[in-house]
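Go through this chain.

——
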Amino acid sequence: MAIRIVVVDDHTLVRRGIVSLLQAQPDMEVAGEAANGEEALRLIPSLRPDVVLMDIGMPGVDGLEATRRLRQLLPEVKVLILTVHDREDYLFQALRAGAAGYILKGADVADLLSAIRSVHQGGVYLYPTVTRRLLADYLQRVERGEGKDQYDGLTERERQVLRLLAEGKTVPEIARLLTISPHTVQTHRDRIMEKLGLHNRAELIRYAIRKGLVE
């Protein structure tokens, strides 16, 4: 079954270009499009897409607020931020809002399509240049002796699960890789969240990046 996608961007030419690109993919279907966050929130509940491609800078309700509201309204819908903002603060705001991925408009077409497929399958996608910057920032803080946390309190198995979750693996995939049941993976995930004081997968991804657990 094709991945149903809604494209949200206030620039008509950009939006139409993305729509044309997606319509040419055999495993993707454009369910609709919106010019701003308010329109997206009005249309998406009836369109029931699998993935929403969301711009950030839009008039009225911006992409971050729209993502936050959409995730509360339809938590099963995956939001992939597609933006020109190559900045750490926007990335963190997007993850806090519940976005499953963050990719730049300057990315290659292959990267965009890969990101859509990844978040649709339950993974998390972060554009490499953004990830490298976060890792560099983390390494600098380590050199300054900053950033001590509760990571040492995790068991070896919990660290394995944390790393795989941060790499975008789904619960069934982790279960197969570690030869354990999906229920056990979920239990490890819940304990990791509790020990590290995290509340959702987006915060877990952000933590793992800062910790240098993923590339």
Notes: The first strand starts at residue 3 and ends at 8. The domain at 144-211 is CATH 1.10.10.10 (Arc Repressor Mutant, subunit A). Residues 39 and 135 are 36 Å apart (CA to CA).
